[in-house]
Every structure is written in C-alpha cells, then in structure tokens.
C-alpha cells in the first residue's frame, strides 16, 4: 500500500497533495511529518512524496499524478486535450507560483484573474487536479495570503471568487483539518519522543538493522522498545531487519528461550527478514582472534579475576601484557583445548592500560567455558565476549546501523576500535535511551532471583515487566507498540511512570470490553417487597456504546445480592438506583452488633428518575447459576522508586504484592476464555487469567487504568 508523506513544516506546505488524496478518498494514506523536508523518508529536499513498493516519487506533481492515475475519478478531465491542459497547469504551479518575488507573483495573479473571468474551473466544467494543485500552491504562498486578507483588489475578483469556491469544497476542508490536527497534536512531553530524526548515511533500500537478544531469558518491556525501534527504521527506509540471537554464553542459553523470544516478537507484531546466530560465525571470530594475537593487538592473560579487576580500576598493566606472539598463540591453543591451564586464562584486547574510559582498558574478548553449546555442542571450549563479537558480526552481516541503548555509550569507542583493528567494514552506531520505570527492575539477574526465590510464580507473573507478564496483567500489544513509538529514539534517560502506558491501554480496551457484574463474597441479600417479582431474564447489550458486541442475559428475581459497602451507606427510605433495572426505596435495614448489614428490604420504584438518586449500585439476582470468582490485584514488587548501585533488593521488598478477594459474577462470564478482557461494573477492567470450571472459580486480574489509585503502592 502506498504512503503519502507531507512535510508539515515545509515552506510552502504541499496542501494540494493532501487535498487530492482526500478528493480521491485516500485521506487515510496521508502522513504528516513534523519536518522541513522528507530526507529521512528517502526524498531529500522534497516536501511531499509517495512511497510505493520501495520506489519514491518525490515531487508534488509526481505524487498527484500518481494518485489521479490510480483512480477512476475524472480529475484529469474527460479527454486527451483536457488531460494535457491539466498537465500544463501543474507545470505552471511548479514553475511560476513557487516564488517569493512580489513583481512576478503580482503578474501571475493578474494572469489567473483574467483567465477565470468567464470560468468556474481552470479546465472544463468540474474541478480537476489543476484546481486543487493551484489552490494548494496559493494557500501555501505567504504573499497570496497577505493580499487575500488586506488587498483583495490586487488579486482580482475572479481569482478570489474561484479560490474561495475551491477552498469551500469538502475535500479541501478535510485536508486542512488533517494538517491542523497534525500541528495541534500535543507536543511530546519530556518522557516522550519521536522517530523523525534521520539516520546518518542512511540510503533507502540499503539500511540494515539488527535486534540481538541473548537467548537466556524472556523479553521485557525494555527489549520491546529496542525491537520496535529496529523494525521501525528498517521499514522506514525500506531496508532489512535481522533477528540475531547472541548465543555466546552456553551456561545460560537454551533453545526454548529462542522460541519464547520469537513468540513474544510475533505477539508484538514485530517482523524480521532473517534469523541469524552469533554462533554461525564462531569459526570466523576465531580466525579474527588469531589475527589480533599475531598483530600484537591482543594477549592471553592468566591473572586471577580479582587482581585483574583491581588492576583495570587503577590503570595497572597486567604481567602478561607484553608476552610474545608465540606465547600468546600457545596459551590461546590451551584455552581452545580447555586444558587446566587454559581454563585459568582469558584473551584481552591490547587497547590501553589507563584510558579515562575504563571500557577501553584492555577488555576481555575471549573466555573458556566447557559447557556444551545448545547449537554447536562440544566443538568449542572458548567463546567470544559480546564486546568482541558484536562489531565483527555487525560488519559481516551487512548491518549499516547498530541501534544500542545509551548505557553502551562508553563502549562505543571500543566497538569502533575492534573494527579498525581488524580492518573491516565500518558500522554506524545510533544511541537511544533505555526504558526505565519506577518501582521496576529490568535486570535479568534480579528478575531471576525473584523467580528462584518463589516470590513470583514465573517469568509471566503479572508483577513482572516481561512482555508475557504485562500481557498477562492485561496490557494489549497495541498499547505496548503505541507507547514504545511515543518514546521514540529519544536519548533522554528518564525514570518513567506507568500511568501513561496503562492510560493508553484503557483507551484501547474501553470501547471493546464487554460489561459484566460481580459482587464481593461478603454481600447482603436484599428482598424485593411490595410486589411479586418472578425470576426472569432479559437480553441487554454487553456494551451500551458498542452494539456490535452483542447481548448478554441479565436475570431479575425476588432476591438480589448487594455489596456490603453499598448496603452500609444506605439510609432508611432512601431512593437508590439498581443499575440496568430501575429505582427502589430502601424500606428496611437489618444490622448485627458490629454494624454489618445482614439483610435489606427494597421496594421497587421503576418509574423513578435515576438522575435524582445519589447512589447507582450494582446487584445480582440470587440464583444458582452465579459464577464463583477470585479477583486479583497486584502491587509493585519493590518499595523504592529506583534502586541505586549497592542497594540490596531484599531490603526493599514489598511485604505483600498480591491481593485476591472472592466474589460471584453474572452467569455470562462462564463463557469467557483466558485472555478475554472485560469491565466489571464499578470495579474496573479485568483480564481472564483462568477460565471457570465446574470445580474452580474464574480468575480475574485487575488491569490498571492509569489512575493513581490503580498503580500506586498499596501498602
């Protein structure tokens, strides 16, 4: 499908393109860019462009001609002569109106005014491309706008008449409204970003990005941003995205993690062009390691870990730094064989001893590990570190732009050093900020601790920031995608609140979530008095504002269940509203010694005005087919907004982070499936975590809605 792109900050704005798109019913293709030109979209210097199957049409006239020729609409006139005249006017708009010369434009306005003396349209007897493009060009002219406001006589009555008529047409107004909406869209706040920043040296059709997760855990919300960002730029430039599994640590990696990562990416709607593994290149990486040893750019060190860490911290050279090439090669062979001595060694890049950037202080680039690899088996007993293999594999696989979180910024010089040391193709690095949320841990090591300690039920626990965890809590994939695109390629490192994400999610689920009713277990039975009410059911809409969701059975009967808190709030003879039934008077309230309501008597007053009652309450008819339920709610796992370096997570554990209360729900929820999202009237949105069975209650997890009470610490 074609994309019609228009630079909203251009001078002049290509109004004619937007108008033609709306005239042809293709307004949904229009995308306004908050830029001066469309360079980032592969159309340098252009203010309007259309992207079609990898091709870019980058002038106003080529765009409107393409749109018109795709349609059966007669915007090109009714015959060959009229089509030729339309083309002449398009050239006129491009060659004559695109100027800020007062004298030239004055003459042009006069020419147009004389031409329109006896005409309603520029070509023929109906609006054509010529009218919409010329009108758009005039609308974008500051000189024309000034004269239209203060010196109409300079323009001429005929030109003004024609211009105001074309401007009044519905499609023109729709186009202008879309432009105004783009301009008036809320300016992104400090914790929001955008992607309209061009990539350095990016060429349409040639951009290659990569998303390189380690197959040793599950994707979390931070990974989601990286994946979406890489996919976005690949698509933006009609390029390629590689999904590369960085499988260089056999101790942690498993094949099942690869499958779960692919599943999570598919759930997010992220697509890739090919899958690779760092292990595909182990032979090549080994050869490059030998090359570095032979050229004196690396050495093999048997210094113990603690001493090495201390030496790097204080800028002290290792005793092994000046070993001969022959000795280094001998030691590396010992590492490769996994001998007892080899296992005491590591290979280090020979960059610097005391560089102020500690990432440049002779980093480790190969280690011994005797654990069999999940793909290569026991072929290798040495494995490259991420710092070594990442730049090399990026270069080998044709990556043009390596998108990395700015926590790696200190390592960028190291990345470039590896490429230069080996003399291989250079790769551009693009930094973006890492997502960080209040009261949230994204560290794989710390999340693993929660799982191993049994504090959470697993990697899909609703309290976890994993893609599976937040989905289980009711976050939609659409909300996750929109939120990450809002954050964009910003390099500002911020501690984000969860409220915007959950508020965005609510906007998505509110129009489509069926409405149901639940009453907590400590309910009160209310008897209907004053008239006989037979047990009966009615079909009522599942969503009053969305009839497409269909109907549900609502049961009415002589005894209804009411929330204890509601019952406690009633006054004698107060008129209340039973939602979806009508008004009733509270005729009798029975209480026990502790003040709890033990029974009610209600007299229906269905003709009463619900607008005049203060209390609109939920209720359920007391019938055997009510569905037992457990309603779950969750708190943050930790009590500190951000753990500092040195903080022990054990000192900041939330004492209780899972809450559940028993309830009963209307009989319709028995048909719900796991993953269904509903709204329980007056309680909020919930997602089905476990379906109801004959023996077990339905499990419903409350979905935060962005309001403070739904996401704040509950302690």
UniProtKB/TrEMBL annotation:
The keyword Hydrolase does not apply. Residues 616-689 form the tRNA synthetases class I (E and Q) anti-codon binding domain. GO terms for molecular function: ATP binding; glutamate-tRNA ligase activity; sequence-specific mRNA binding. PROSITE patterns: AA_TRNA_LIGASE_I (PS00178). One of its GO terms (cellular component) is cytosol. Residues 513-604 form the Glutamyl/glutaminyl-tRNA synthetase class Ib anti-codon binding domain. Its EC number is 6.1.1.17. Keywords: Aminoacyl-tRNA synthetase, ATP-binding, Cytoplasm, Ligase, Nucleotide-binding, Protein biosynthesis. One of its GO terms (biological process) is glutamyl-tRNA aminoacylation. It catalyses: tRNA(Glu) + L-glutamate + ATP = L-glutamyl-tRNA(Glu) + AMP + diphosphate. InterPro entries: aa-tRNA-synth_I_CS, Gln/Glu-tRNA_Ligase, Glu-tRNA-synth_arc/euk, Glu/Gln-tRNA-synth, Glu/Gln-tRNA-synth_Ib_cat-dom, Glu/Gln-tRNA-synth_Ib_codon-bd, Glutathione-S-Trfase_C_sf, Rbsml_bL25/Gln-tRNA_synth_N. Residues 206-510 form the Glutamyl/glutaminyl-tRNA synthetase class Ib catalytic domain. The keyword Transcription does not apply. It is found in: Cytoplasm. Belongs to the class-I aminoacyl-tRNA synthetase family. Glutamate--tRNA ligase type 2 subfamily. This is glutamate--tRNA ligase. The lineage of its organism: Eukaryota, Fungi, Fungi incertae sedis, Mucoromycota, Mucoromycotina.
């Amino acid at each position: 499908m074609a994309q019609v792109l228009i630079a909203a900050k251009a001078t002049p704005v290509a109004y004619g393109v937007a108008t033609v798109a709306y005239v042809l019913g293709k307004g949904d293709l229009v995308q306004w860019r908050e830029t001066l030109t469309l360079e980032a979209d592969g159309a340098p210097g252009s203010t309007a462009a259309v992207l079609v199957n990898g091709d870019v049409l980058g002038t106003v006239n080529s765009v409107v001609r393409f749109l018109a020729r795709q349609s059966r609409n007669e915007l090109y006139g009714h015959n060959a002569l009229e089509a030729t005249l339309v083309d002449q006017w398009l050239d006129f708009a491009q060659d004559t109106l695109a100027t800020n010369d007062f004298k030239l434009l004055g003459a042009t306005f006069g020419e147009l005014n004389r031409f329109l003396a006896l005409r309603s349209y520029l070509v023929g007897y109906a609006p054509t491309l010529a009218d919409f493009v010329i009108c758009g060009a005039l609308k974008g002219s500051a000189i024309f706008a000034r004269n239209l406001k203060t010196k109409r006589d300079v323009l001429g009555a005929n030109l003004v008449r024609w211009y105001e008529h074309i401007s009044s047409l519905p499609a023109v107004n729709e186009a202008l409204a879309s432009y105004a909406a783009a301009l008036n869209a809320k300016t992104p706040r400090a914790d929001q970003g955008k992607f309209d920043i061009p990539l350095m040296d990016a060429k349409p059709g040639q951009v290659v990005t990569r998303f390189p997760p380690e197959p040793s855990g599950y994707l979390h919300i931070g990974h989601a941003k990286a994946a979406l960002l890489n996919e976005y730029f690949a698509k933006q430039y009609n390029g390629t995205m590689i999904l590369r599994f960085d499988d260089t640590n056999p101790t942690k990696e498993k094949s099942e993690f690869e499958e779960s990562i692919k599943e999570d990416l598919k759930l997010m709607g992220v697509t890739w062009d090919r899958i690779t593994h760092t292990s595909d290149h182990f032979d090549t990486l080994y050869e490059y390691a030998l090359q570095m040893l032979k050229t004196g750019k690396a050495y093999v060190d048997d210094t113990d870990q603690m001493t090495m860490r201390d030496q790097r911290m204080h800028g002290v050279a290792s005793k092994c730094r000046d070993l001969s090439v022959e000795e280094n090669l001998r030691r590396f062979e010992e590492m490769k064989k996994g001998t007892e001595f080899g296992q005491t060694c590591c290979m280090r890049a020979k960059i610097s001893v005391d560089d102020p950037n500690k990432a440049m202080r002779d980093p480790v680039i190969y280690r011994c590990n005797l654990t069999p690899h999940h793909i290569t088996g026991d072929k290798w007993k040495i494995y490259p570190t991420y710092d070594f293999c990442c730049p090399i594999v990026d270069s080998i696989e044709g990556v043009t732009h390596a998108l990395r979180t700015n926590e790696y910024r200190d390592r960028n010089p190291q990345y470039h050093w590896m490429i230069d040391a080996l003399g291989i193709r250079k790769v551009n690095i693009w930094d973006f900020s890492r997502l960080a949320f209040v009261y949230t841990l994204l560290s794989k090591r710390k999340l693993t601790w929660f799982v191993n300690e049994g504090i959470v039920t697993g990697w899909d626990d609703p309290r976890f920031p994993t893609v599976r965890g937040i989905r289980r809590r009711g976050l939609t994939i659409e909300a996750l995608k929109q939120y990450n695109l809002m954050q964009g390629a910003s390099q500002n490192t911020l501690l984000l609140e969860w409220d915007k994400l959950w508020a965005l999610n609510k906007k998505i689920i509110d129009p489509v979530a069926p409405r149901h009713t639940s009453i907590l277990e400590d309910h009160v039975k209310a008897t209907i008095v004053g008239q006989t009410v037979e047990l009966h059911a009615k079909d009522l809409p599942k969503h009053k504002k969305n009839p497409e969701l269909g109907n549900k059975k609502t049961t009415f009967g002589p005894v209804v269940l009411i929330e204890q808190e509601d019952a406690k709030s009633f006054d004698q003879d107060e008129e209340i509203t039973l939602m979806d039934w009508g008004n009733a008077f509270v005729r009798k309230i029975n209480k026990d010694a502790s003040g709890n309501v033990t029974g009610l008597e209600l007299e229906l007053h269905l003709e009463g005005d619900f607008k005049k009652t203060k209390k609109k309450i939920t209720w359920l008819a007391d019938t055997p087919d009510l569905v037992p339920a457990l309603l779950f709610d969750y708190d943050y796992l930790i009590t500190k907004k951000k753990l500092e370096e040195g903080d022990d997570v054990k000192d900041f554990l939330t004492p209780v982070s899972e809450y559940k209360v028993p309830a009963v729900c209307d009989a319709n929820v028995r048909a719900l499936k796991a993953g269904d999202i509903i709204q329980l009237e007056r309680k909020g949105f919930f997602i089905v975590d476990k379906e109801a069975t004959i023996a077990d209650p339905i499990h419903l997890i409350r979905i935060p809605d962005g309001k403070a009470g739904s996401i704040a610490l509950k302690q």
